[in-house]
Specification:
The structure is a single chain. By secondary structure, the protein is of the alpha+beta class. The chain is 51% helix and 18% strand. It has helices at 2-46, 51-82, 86-89, 95-101, 103-112, 130-148, 212-222, and strands spanning 92-94, 116-121, 125-127, 153-162, 173-181, 226-231, 238-245. A hairpin with a 6-residue loop joins strand 6 (226-231) and strand 7. The protein is globular. The termini are far apart.
Length: 251
Amino acid sequence: MGEAINDLLQRLRVAAAAQRGFLDDASHQLRTPLAVILSESAQALQEPHPEALHGHLVRLNSAAQRGAHLSHQLLTLARAEGSAKPEASGQTIDLARLIADSATEWVNSARRAGQDLGFELAPATVLGEPWQLRELLGNLLHNAAMHAGRGAQITVRTRRIEAPRDGNGAHGAAVVLEVEDDGPGVAPQDRPRVWDRFYRGAHAKGAGTGLGLAIVQHIARAHGGDTQLHEGPGGRGLCVRITFPAVSTTA
């Protein structure tokens, strides 16, 4: 029986690895033709063209953007699922610094979308993979920007907190990452399912893929984190809160 169980687990590992490999390869292969379609359709929109073709070109460019974003997210998911646990990498990362290093790119994107993106960053050190944590935050910001709408205010926060004492009287520390917006928020009946892959609420805006928050939760859990949804300020909007185990910055 033991040999049979070990054989079954090995076959499951092989099947899972094959699935991740397929997603990885498919995403890579899709990126080039999608990039060509995206570039060509954008150029065609900028050049003089018959009015009758304008709607077709807009839809083609929009579909290419969505396809490129979906391909990137599938590749991210495949890479994240195939990576070793962050504990194995031993990289100590200050989330505040990691966010600050990419802030300009995100601020410029928010301005183009007519949104106000702000930061309240306090030192928050975790153990993890930098590229995965950047992807996590990028998905959170993309999700907030797409659903909050034009004119929204989006705030990114990091902080270190003391965890409550456990039954033995011991206590530790945790790191909190929040992305909060003042948009329409998420309906209560949709909140339990927004972490599911490809799920989009009945009132979801934009051409999202339904993978953003699933990727966020997968990366958070791989880093020992917990994901929660809360209402934004004054009961409006949405606050996505992720709590990670903290890493001591003292020797």
